[in-house]
Amino acid sequence: MPLSEMTVGVDIGGTKVAAGLVNEKGEILNKVRKPMVATADAQTGLDAVLTAIHEVLQESSSDSVRGIGICSPGPLDPKRGVVINPPNLPCWRNFELAEEVRKVYSVPVKVDNDANAAALAEVLWGAGQGYNNVFYATIGTGIGSGIILDGKIFHGRTGAAAEAGHMGVDFNGPLCPCGKRGCIEVLASGPGIARRARQKVTSHPESALLTLAGGTVDAVTGQIVNQAYAAGDPIAREVMEETIGLLAYWLGNIVDLLEPEVIVIGGGVSTTLAPWLEEIRSRWTGKVVNPWPDQVPLVLAHYGEEAGIAGAAALCEAA
Ligand SMILES: [Zn+2]
Question: How far is the CA of 104 from the centre of ligand 1 (A)?
């Protein structure tokens, strides 16, 4: 396929830049991964991004792709392609990322946050294909989300919408890094699951959770919860039951708010949740105001670790 039909997707994080060439079917070709230099000056941060793009293009002529899409940590302004002040990218403050990349490559450049972009990739090429109104959540070290309405990313007034991971499900709950209490992220992300497990282990030292963690409560992780659950440990089962209940409560609220055609779940914890998806669905059915909650499918995302690259490329497909 000629390069002119491809796009470059760039996924920027606090420590790495991943980039890939993506074809019109959303398939990712020659991927690269570079360290992100987030703590130096703005130009050094930009250079890390440009190097990744350059390597992906393998020194082909600079305007040979259709466009370059970039996922960056927010807050950002997706309309202008400006990165505002992400805590994990101190190098960029009101940085005109799209414009700076456009200066070098002379192709359309789009910038958005990773969960919004990943939501769009699922609709174009993944588990949300055929649907126009989709709620996407990525559950991993945090919980991110994206809303697709009428086939387009819903940005809200400034681009700061769709932070569903910070919807509260317990106002007396633990403090979330965002400053609020009881966000679904602080309770049901990977670290959130591990924290609830550690609390239970202190009063149940006989649990397999503690054995698997080498006897150290602080060493209990989400993965250990998973292992202990598979081994039949009752405390791990309690933790998983709670997790399922929390996610069902939260997603039931999403069904009542958006009535999406489908809910797509990605992120590192999603594979652990895979056997539980029908259980989550059955728990929101009957617990929501929506009269047809059983008609909203809950499915696993198509993209895993490559969701950022695919999502970034998907931004170039959007009208
Ligand atoms: Zn929060």
Answer: 37
Q: Let me know: does 90 contact 49? Beta carbons within 8 Å.
A: no
Whether the Cβ atoms of residue 293 and residue 257 lie closer than 8 Å to each other? no
Contact between 162 and 147 under an 8 Å Cβ cutoff? The reply is: yes
Could you give the CA distance from residue 230 to residue 70 in angstroms, rounded to a whole number?
A: 39
- pLDDT tens-digit map of 78-136: 999 999 999 999 999 999 999 999 999 999 999 999 999 999 999 999 999 999 999 99
Phi/psi-derived region of residue 53, left when phi > 0, alpha when psi is between -120 and 50, beta in every other case: alpha
Q: Would you give the DSSP letter of residue 295? A: G
CA of 267 to the centre of ligand 1 (A): 17
Question: Phi-psi region for residue 68, left (φ > 0), alpha (ψ -120 to 50) or beta?
Answer: beta
Report CA(209)–ligand 1 centroid distance (Å): 27
Q: Which DSSP letter does residue 291 get? A: S
Cis peptide before 75 (omega within 30 of 0): yes
Q: Rounded distance, CA 91 to CA 68, Å? A: 21
Q: Read off the tokens for 276.
A: 């539980």
Question: DSSP class of residue 176?
Answer: P
- The three-class DSSP label of residue 123 is helix
CA distance 154 to 256: 17
The reported pTM is 0.94
